[in-house]
Amino acid sequence: MMQVHLKQLKLYGYHGLDKGEDVLGGEYEVSLTASYTSTEVPLVSIGQTIDYTVLYEMVKQRMQKPTPLLETLATEIASEIFAKFSNAEEVVISIFKLHPPIKNFQGSVGVTYQLKREEK
User: Over the stretch 76-88, which tens digit does the pLDDT of each residue have?
Assistant: First the structure.
């Protein structure tokens, strides 16, 4: 099995349930792994793999659409990857809100979603 990774992407978005998050926005960190089995080795063409530049654009575009729940973002991005890449067998995506609006809180909050094609 081959895996393509995007790790610790820093993106700005307008996600959250708290009043004003959809206006002020915040910083997010996204990591994902897309797994697939190659029918040929060695891989010699981008068409044989999952193009990480396409994955990045997909994540970047989806993160620009305000969404109340990180869970919604994660599940929709994973589904979009399966729709775009027929060879994708599994997607694991983590999304962290780096500065959540929680009083006296230091750290980040986030979600991780794992989806296998046979579960879809």
Answer: 999 999 999 999 9
Q: Are 105 and 97 in contact (CB under 8 A)?
A: no
pTM, two decimals, is: 0.92
Domains identified in the chain and CATH numbers: 2-119 (3.30.1130.10)
Q: Look at residue 120 in the predicted model and tell me its pLDDT.
A: 61
